[in-house]
Amino acid sequence: MKDHLSSYKRPLAGWVWNSARHMDFETVFCPFAGWPAIPMMFKEQGKSVVTADLLESHVHLSRALVVNQDEVLDPFDVDRLVEENKAKVQLVEGVCNAYGIAPAHGAWLDNLRSNTGRLDGPVKKSLALTVGMLVIRYLMSFDDATRNVMPDDDPAGAFHYYVEFLNQKVISNGALCETYNRDALDLVATVSSDAMYFYLPSAAGCRDLSPEQRMMELFVNACTESELDAKLEGRASGLGSAMSDEMDYEKKVAAFFDAAGHIPVWILGYNEKGLLPVKDLQNLLGGFRKNVMVLENMVAESSESKYCEYLLIAHP
Question: Quick check: 284 and 253 in contact, CB under 8 A?
Fold first, then answer.
């Protein structure tokens, strides 16, 4: 079965670490964490990691895979999660057709989410919700013809596979790791960290979700479409909010850099599809840091398409 945990940033992890490993830092702040491939890599290298994200689905991922040091889903937890819950609220089942998920599979996801409250503590709940998100990614990876012939119990098989898969991803590095569901602009000024890594978010903001991201947010929040829109409205005041043009984007990037002035080392991921030309971003960084280095890496989207990824490393 495919590794549905990886994000498109995972192949960049080795490049990021090779660029950062000679730097002197013990704690790294990772705002806009998303699917936390790079924060996980820093944890694997023994660093203390602090993540932040506006989406609750991403915070659960970080709690399960970055904050978590030793908790796994044991057979008793699995039994609790798959037991029929007659009090389950049918939320995913009601919207799943619009996302290419069969109603029977939506009902199974509702049952799983309703049972997460039976687990001990927030870390195990985040583990269970992460497994649910992996099942959603699995279900949404098929075309319509395949989905139409999938058996009703197909999510259960994927669930058991991903429980074992996720349990194997849990590591202890002996360092304190934390995650926050907060606006990074509000949080960065209070974070005590030697370094900061983040992939610069798009100008579209946190409300511009793919169907998969939106389905996962509906699942973990146990809410309706309109309730989710209300949750996301006004969630961010800086980066992560929707921006109208290049000038507005540059202004909010600069405000974030200014708030992060106490963190010595900055490592930024960016690509050529971003709103700002990389030269403009480099010049903007130069207003806050004396030393700015730009690294380039060509990434293949397909056999016929490539684009350029950048790492911008800045320090005093």
Answer: yes
